[in-house]
UniProtKB/TrEMBL annotation:
GO terms of molecular function: 4 iron, 4 sulfur cluster binding; carbon monoxide binding; iron ion binding
Gene3D superfamilies: 6.10.20.100, HypD, alpha/beta domain 1
Name of this chain's protein: Hydrogenase maturation protein HypD
Any single biological process term in GO: protein maturation
Similarity comment text for this entry: Belongs to the HypD family.
NCBIfam families the record matches: hypD
InterPro entries registered for this protein in UniProt: Hyd_form_HypD, HypD_1, HypD_2_sf
Length: 362
């Protein structure tokens, strides 16, 4: 079924009525933050019976970036006056382990921190500010890595020698494996992110079915896409099927995007990486290969991670792991709000706490 066909209200009613009649308990994890926001915004949760639960997963880039990384970036910013930090918008509000420190606050105190809409903008800033060092904070999953690669290629081709990348890029598969290996993990099926699928392909999610026996559907981001995917998951479970289905065939191919996959292999090496809530996960991050160390901010500025202690009342780790809903966190909506976020899940436009705050609770 194509999305345009599914936009007919009468078809949506059919699916909603079907789902409302299901009394089996089914926990579905939506892996990515874009789905979390789309689900909250469209009111899909309120259309489902209480026994079909949608639970947010570890797919919000800002949320999974650990406080140790945030602290390291803040230190870098404070200690280098000749620096311009460039980053996507959500990152600047994330507090480090000290509650009153963030890139936004450093910017207010006079540090040069700039929001960019693409990594290429950071290269332009480097061209315009040759006397300064420009650091681009590379965060996100398979979907944002290509933008960082474009910027790196531009810097190489144009022989720009004041542009550096601090790569905190992460991979979806190792995080899902880490979650699935947890003894109390209580998820029956997965709604897989279509944009990640566009890069890694259907084959990138096959392990969920083959190794972990979890029905999974790759899904787009319209409300219609998400409803179809939930319907397909429920249908599999009721009929004792365990399959990987691709609801987003208009974008996601079996093998994904080979050009991007090859470029990632060219520029990055897979490394162990630290995740908020999930700890150190083997082979879960992307760092620049040694051949490109002259563009690597971690080498240029000798960035090292130090252990950090976050507010113990913040439950972002449990939210990221799908163990609790945001409203269970004692700080939600009281101490922690979008204006005064305590944890990254309230900051990010893809964070579960922000989605609950904006669309489901207040
Ligand atoms: Fe973290 Fe705030 Fe969410 Fe609590 S409400 S889990 S402190 S972001």
């Amino acid at each position: 079924m194509h999305l345009s066909e599914f936009k007919k209200p009468q078809d949506i009613y059919v699916v909603i009525n079907y789902l409302k009649g299901i009394d089996k308990k089914i926990n579905i994890m939506e892996v990515c933050g874009t789905h979390t926001m789309a689900i909250a915004k469209s009111g899909i949760k309120s259309l489902l019976p209480p026994n079909i639960k949608l639970i947010s997963g570890p797919g919000c880039p800002v949320c999974v970036t650990p406080s140790e990384e945030i602290d390291a970036v803040l230190e870098l910013c404070k200690n280098n006056k000749n620096l311009i930090i460039t980053t996507y918008g959500d990152m600047i509000k994330v507090p480090g382990s000290k509650p009153n420190e963030s890139l936004e606050r450093l910017k207010a105190q006079g540090q040069d921190v700039r929001i960019v809409y693409s990594a290429l903008d950071a290269v332009d800033i480097a061209k315009e500010n040759k006397e300064k060092d420009i650091v681009f904070l590379g965060i996100g999953f398979e979907t944002t890595t290509p933008g960082t690669i474009l910027a790196l290629e531009e810097a190489i081709n144009q022989k720009i020698n004041n542009f550096y990348i601090y790569s905190m890029h992460k991979l979806v598969e190792p995080a899902l494996r880490a979650l699935l290996e947890q003894p109390d993990f209580d998820i029956d099926a997965f709604l897989c992110p279509g944009h990640v699928g566009a890069v890694i392909g259907e084959e990138g999610f096959e392990f969920l079915v083959k190794e972990y026996n979890k029905p999974s559907v790759i899904c787009g981001f319209e409300a219609g896409d998400i409803l179809i995917a939930i319907y397909k998951i429920v249908n599999q479970i009721l009929n004792n099927r365990v399959e990987l289905e691709n609801e987003y065939k208009r974008v996601v191919k079996k093998e994904g995007n080979k050009i991007i996959k090859n470029k990632v292999e060219t520029y990055f090496k897979v490394s162990d990486d630290l995740w908020r809530g999930l700890g150190l996960i083997q082979n879960s991050g992307l760092k620049l290969k040694d051949e490109f160390k002259e563009y690597d901010a971690s080498k240029k500025f000798n960035i090292t991670l130090k252990q950090s202690n976050i507010n113990s009342a913040c439950k972002c780790g449990d939210v990221i792991k799908g163990k609790i809903e945001p409203t269970i966190c004692p700080l939600f909506g009281k101490v922690c709000t979008p204006e005064n976020p305590v944890g990254p899940c309230m900051v990010s436009s893809e964070g579960a706490c922000a989605a609950y705050y904006k669309y489901l609770v207040f």
